[in-house]
Give the backbone structure.
Amino acid sequence: MSRSFLFVPADSERKMEKAGGVEADALILDLEDSVAPDARPAARQLAAEYLKGRDNVWVRVNPVDTEDFEADIEAVMASQPAGIMLPKPRHARDAVKLSERIDVLENHHGIDHGQTRIIALCTEHPEALLTLHSYVGTVPRLAGLSWGAEDLSAAVGAATNRSTKGEWLPPYEMARSMCLFAAAAAEVAAIDTVFTDFRDDEGLLRYAANARRDGFSGMLAIHPDQVEPINAAFSPSAEEIEHAQRIVELFEQNPGVGTVGLEGKMIDRPHLLQAQRLLQQARRN
Ligand code: COA
Ligand code: MG
């Protein structure tokens, strides 16, 4: 799974051009909140052009219950986006609705069934937080869950979602954790949200390192300068790879054994799974 997803407002030819030279694992052309409603028709056409022949470019469409949604998805599907990012779902039913629309358009354009993946922003609506279990086993094309605090804090009437030090306040820390658990339960990637202070390099590095520590496999970016630090933060280090290899070897050398000692520490099955996952991640990068 990709480490960095760079948002690019689809009404900006300049930013789209710039994004082509950035080492993001994936781009997300945005047709939703970063594009003014009047600019959307032109943005759809720019997005459809940009997608042609490019890999790993996603599109964030408007929420499924809006008129813009239908125009967005119709405009971009012929150009075969890697996937569609779904904002503000209330329930996995909204992702199913998107998926069914994609089924029809894949068929219409002769695209392999299931090729177009979905990432859902699963915490933007308060109801969504209470229905996160609905993603488990429901949407075969679901590739990941990500989250956002801005719409959520607006919905509950909060004055802010961050402390004066810039850390998530408890309600949003909880939403982040729930996204992580829901992604694990649905067996899809957990992708941490944007770090909006795009001049704060140290803060970003710290945030991304914590995200990886907690189990997120990637993160959303809003500025080209954020891509490299994110890629670095989500790439296992040489020492981590070596340590994981030792754990895997130890279990291979001791078949049928449930727990082993390594450097004075107990290692059992969860550690083996963790090590295997890390090695898989390292191979993908
Ligand atoms: N993708 C591609 N290029 C980008 C970019 C992005 N997300 N953000 C900035 N750039 C480009 C700028 O166009 C500029 O290039 P230029 O000098 O050739 O014009 C360069 O990178 C440096 O940008 P900078 O001046 O530091 O920032 P800015 O003030 O132009 O833009 C934002 C700041 C936040 C408006 C911009 O980063 C942005 O649009 N981010 C994405 C917002 C978004 O999609 N939000 C939705 C999800 S939350
Ligand atoms: Mg939003």
Q: What stands out?
A: Residues 6-9, 14-15, 18-19, 30, 33-34, 194, 222-224 surround coenzyme A (ligand 1) (CB under 6 Å). The chain has a mean pLDDT of 96.
